[in-house]
Amino acid sequence: MDFQEDLRHHLRSASLVGMTIIASLVIYLGFVEVLRAAYKPFRGFASIADIRPVRYAVFGAAAAVIVLIRILRPRLLRKGTGDDAKTVLPRLQRAALLTMVLGEVPGTLGLGWFLVSGYNIDFYVLAFASLLLVFMYFPRRAAWEEWLKG
Fold this sequence. Notes:
Layout lengths: L2 H36 L13 H25 L8 H33 L2 H17 L4 H9 L1
């Protein structure tokens, strides 16, 4: 298999995972809207006296994931001196996959928080953060080629 075909294979796999994550975020949105329509007004499935600390924990965890991505990604993309195409492309693919999967975490936290509290605005904010992260780190051929040259 030549280098361009190998690049295309790794990029295609990572892109498919990214599209699947985007689809899952859309499914989360549909699920939230169905629940809101079916249980008008939806107030969540849990009754917690003081829910604010849980809300802060959810948003704090989402922020921690964003910071983790910013710290982890450059380390995952660090090149070694003896790297060749056989080692670099799988590493690049792993970095893209891990980054996008971590990028979905705020949306998943938002869905869980919505189910507990019924706060749909918080879900929208966290789902938007996930969507933004996935789009920021979505694998692009030009970016991969530039990284491979550098």
